[in-house]
C-alpha cells in the first residue's frame, strides 16, 4: 500500500492503532453526548491518537520529500549520452549534499524501484560502485523488467570494467 511506503513497521502499526483509537474515541464521545454525560475528559484523550497518526505521517512526508530531492538530483545528472551519469564531474559541495540526501532515504525501508534506481544513479555518480550495485539489484529484484534499473546495471558494469582496466593499465606504464 502506497500509504505505508517508506515507513518502518512500528510506524505502520502506530498509525493503524492511532486510527482505531481515534474512531473508538469518536464513538465514546458521541455516546456521552447522546446520554448527556460529561465528555470533557474524553476530549483530552484525543491527543493520543493524533500523535499516533501524526508522527508516522510526518515521517512519510519527510521520506517523500527526500525521494523527490533524490529524483531531481538524479534527473539533473542525466543528459543525452547513454553513459553520462558515470562521466560528468561532481563538485565536493554537491557530493556532500547528495550523500546526506541518500543517508536520509536509505535508512527507510524502500520498496520503490524508482527511488532505488535514483539512489543507484547518485551512488554511481559519487563513485560508490558497490552501493550503486546494491541499490540497483534491489530495484531489479522488486521489478525485474524495470528498463531504468537494467540500463543503470549496464552503466555500473561498464564503470566497474573501466576502473579494473585502469588499475591493470597503471602498473604497465611504470
Tally of helical segments: 8
SS class: mainly alpha
Q: Assembly type of the shown chains?
A: single chain
Q: Main beta sheet, described?
A: none
Our measurement of the CA-to-CA distance between the termini, rounded to an integer number of angstroms, reads 58 Å
- Element-level helix/strand string: HHHHHHHH
The gyration radius over C-alpha positions equals 24 Å
| Arithmetic mean pLDDT | 81
Number of strands: 0
CATH class: Mainly Alpha
**The named CATH superfamily:** Tetratricopeptide repeat domain
Q: How would you portray this structure in words?
A:
The protein has one domain (2-173): Serine Threonine Protein Phosphatase 5, Tetratricopeptide repeat. The chain has 8 helices and no strands. It has helices at 9-34, 40-45, 47-77, 84-87, 92-106, 113-125, 129-142, 147-173.
Key traits:
174 residues; mainly alpha; Serine Threonine Protein Phosphatase 5, Tetratricopeptide repeat; 8 helices
Topology:
Blueprint: H1 9-34, H2 40-45, H3 47-77, H4 84-87, H5 92-106, H6 113-125, H7 129-142, H8 147-173
Helix pairs in contact: 1-3, 3-5, 3-6, 6-7, 6-8, 7-8
Quick description:
It is built from eight helices and no strands. The chain has 174 residues and is an all-alpha fold. It has a single domain (2-173), classed as Serine Threonine Protein Phosphatase 5, Tetratricopeptide repeat.
